C-alpha cells in the first residue's frame, strides 16, 4: 500500500489503539491526531505514534486520505459538521462509533454519502484513554465496515486493507443490521451488567457482605460494568429504539422465569438453563466480539510462604506479562485459589504449559 495520511479526531482507547497498530504496520504513515487532552497528545508524539498533534480542528489536520472520528457517538456527529468545510477533495471520513444509524443519516444530510464509510471495531477494555491503548487491541476482533451506497468500492477496499493491517477481521454489513445486532450482543449486556451491580449495591447490608462475597461468576458477568459511563450514556441515547426492543423482550423472558419459579416448574427451569448452555457452548472462540475476551488461568496454589512469588517469578523469567492477579476467596464457582489474567491467548497457553511443567495444577478459562 502506498504511503497515506490518516487523521484521528479523538485519541482515546480505540483511536489510540488503531493509531498504534498503523504505526507498527506502516512506519512511514503520516498520523495526525487531535484531542483536548494535552498529556495524551504529548505521549503520542514522544512515542512517535503521531507525526503531528492538534488541539484545534484545522484544514491541515483534515488534509488526509482517511479521517477517523474517534470520540463518543454524539461528539462524532458534531465533528462531522465541523470538518465539512475543511476537508480536501479526496478525504474519506470514517468513524469508530458503536452506533451507526445517526452518523449515516447525518452524512447523507450533509451530502457526504460519497465519502463516508462507517466503522466499528468490536473490541474494547474496562479501561479507557490513550494511556491504556495498545496495538494488539484489535487483533482477531471483528471490525464492522458499513459503507454507503455512493462511496467507491476502491475506497472501501482501501479501508478494508487498513483494517486488516491491524490484524482485525473486517466484516461489511448494512448499518441498520449492525445497530440491531449490537443492541442484543453488546448494548443490552452492558445495561444488564450495570443493573446487577446496582442491585447488589442497593441490597447489600451495612457491613458490605455481598460486596465481600462477590467473586467468581458475579465478577465475570459484571466485568463490563466498569466501562466508560459517558460512552454508554451516548450509546443508549443514540441506539434507543433497538435497545428498547431487546430490553422489552428480555424483561418478558425474566417474567417467564419468575413465573417458573412461582410454579416451581422444574421442567421449564431446566429447559431455560439447558438451552442457554447449548447455545453458549456453540459460540466460537476464534474472534472476540464487543465484550472483550478474558484470558485467565486458575491455579491451585499451596498455602506456604513464597508460593505466589514462585509463580510470578516463573512467568517473569519467560517474559510472560500479567494483566491482573487475585486470590479467589469465594470458591463456590471457581477452581484454583489463584487467578491470573493475561493480555492474549498466546501468553495464557504458554503460562499453562510452564506451570504444569513445574507441577502446578491449572484450570484454563476462556471467557
Descriptive account of the structure:
- The chain has 14 helices and 12 strands.
- The protein has helices at 13-25, 38-46, 59-62, 73-83, 101-109, 153-165, 175-203, 209-213, 217-221, 229-238, 240-262, 266-281, 307-317, 345-357; strands at 5-9, 30-34, 52-54, 66-69, 92-95, 116-121, 142-147, 169-172, 295-299, 322-327, 338-342, 362-366.
**Overall mean confidence score, pLDDT:** 88
Strand order of the largest sheet: 3-2-1-4-5-6-7-8
> How far apart are the termini?
36 Å
Morphology call: globular
Query: Radius of gyration from the CA trace?
Result: 23 Å
Strand content: 15-25%
* Uncertain runs: 329-335
* Helical proportion, percent range: 40-55%
SS element count, helices: 14
Element pattern in H and E = EHEHEHEHEHEEHEHHHHHHEHEEHE
β-strand number: 12
Question: What does the largest sheet look like?
Answer: 8 strands, mixed
Secondary structure category: alpha/beta
Brief write-up:
With 367 residues, this protein is of the alpha/beta class. The chain is built from 14 helices and 12 strands. It is 47% helix and 16% strand.
Which short descriptors sum up this protein?
367 residues; four-stranded antiparallel beta sheet; alpha/beta; eight-stranded mixed beta sheet; single chain; 47% helix
Task: Describe the secondary-structure layout.
Elements: E1 5-9, H1 13-25, E2 30-34, H2 38-46, E3 52-54, H3 59-62, E4 66-69, H4 73-83, E5 92-95, H5 101-109, E6 116-121, E7 142-147, H6 153-165, E8 169-172, H7 175-203, H8 209-213, H9 217-221, H10 229-238, H11 240-262, H12 266-281, E9 295-299, H13 307-317, E10 322-327, E11 338-342, H14 345-357, E12 362-366
Parallel strand pairs: 1-2, 1-4, 2-3, 4-5, 5-6, 7-8
Antiparallel strand pairs: 6-7, 9-11, 9-12, 10-11
